[in-house]
Write a structure and sequence with these properties.
It is a single chain. By secondary structure, this protein is of the alpha/beta class. It has a domain of 171 residues: Spore Coat Polysaccharide Biosynthesis Protein SpsA, Chain A (Alpha-Beta Complex), CATH 3.90.550.10. It has 7 helices and 11 strands. Strands 3-2-1-4-8-5-9 form a 7-stranded mixed β-sheet, with helices on both faces. Helix 1 links the parallel strand 1 and strand 2. The protein is globular, with a radius of gyration of 17 Å. The termini are far apart. The model has no long low-confidence stretch (mean pLDDT 94).
Length: 247
């Protein structure tokens, strides 16, 4: 069967989120998740070292409780986001690399759906432009109508390892790194089903200010006919709220 590497970039302030993502990954229905590659990306040496220690303890606590190998990738240097993504890709061993951000929600069928799509079609990369987003401060669910089929944010991208032979992120980027990785969003991309893919979290600590992004955005509309607790399990939802410092 097709093996999967899950790839996550994290940092000190997201350690609680990382622990929550562990539960989300454990709930995935796809059985051939080979490894979870965790790249430490704190932008402060002291915080980096502290987070490395936290993650190493966490991995040691969980290693006998999961069949998924958890591997911490670290650098002595402070690296920008695009360099961290390249570092992670260089260490992935699975047939397919599935990107997961530490602060977003992925339904249990997410990895399985992604693998099915990549195995079905003769393309090397998949993603989702028409994503759902949930604002944990305003308690509102939103839907992006999508930009075009070859567009995706990195948090729901997945690609065959073969894709990495000719594709890397441009060095030195702190955001919007997807553009370089997809040759300006021109690479033929398999569109994933938004309802099977991701709920993007909007909170005060996003790398990119998503609260500002959704304001007056013609591609974003509020979803009023869905209950978030019908999508995200109550326990995980409460853990996510706690991680984002809301009571």
């Amino acid at each position: 069967m097709t093996t999967v590497s899950i790839l996550t970039i994290t940092q000190h302030k997201r350690f609680i989120c990382l622990k929550n993502l562990y539960d989300i990954i454990q709930a995935q229905t796809y059985l051939e998740i080979k490894e979870w590659i965790i790249v430490e990306g704190s932008q402060n040496i002291e915080l980096k070292q502290n987070n490395i220690e936290n993650i190493e303890i966490f991995i040691n606590e969980k290693k006998d409780l999961t069949n998924i190998k958890m591997r911490l990738i670290k650098s002595d240097d402070i690296l920008p986001l695009s360099d961290l993504r390249n570092l992670g890709n260089d260490n992935c061993l699975g047939d397919i690399i599935v990107c997961m951000d530490d602060d977003d929600y992925y339904p249990p069928i997410s990895v399985n759906h992604t693998v099915e799509k990549l195995n079905k079609y003769n393309r090397l990369i998949a993603g989702c432009s028409g994503i759902y987003l949930y604002d944990f401060k305003l308690n509102k669910l939103y839907k992006c109508s999508g930009y075009h089929n070859n567009h995706s944010t990195n948090n729901c991208m997945a690609y065959k390892r073969e894709y990495l032979k000719n594709h890397r992120y441009k060095d030195g980027l702190h955001f919007a790194e997807e553009y370089s990785f997809t040759n300006g969003f021109t690479e033929p991309m398999i569109p994933l089903n938004p309802e099977k893919c991701i709920i993007v979290s909007i909170h005060e600590y996003n790398t990119v200010d998503k609260q500002k992004w959704i304001t007056d955005n013609e591609f974003i509309s509020e979803v009023k006919d869905k209950n978030i607790l019908d999508i995200i399990p109550h326990k995980i939802f409460e853990n996510m709220k706690e991680a984002f410092y809301f009571e």
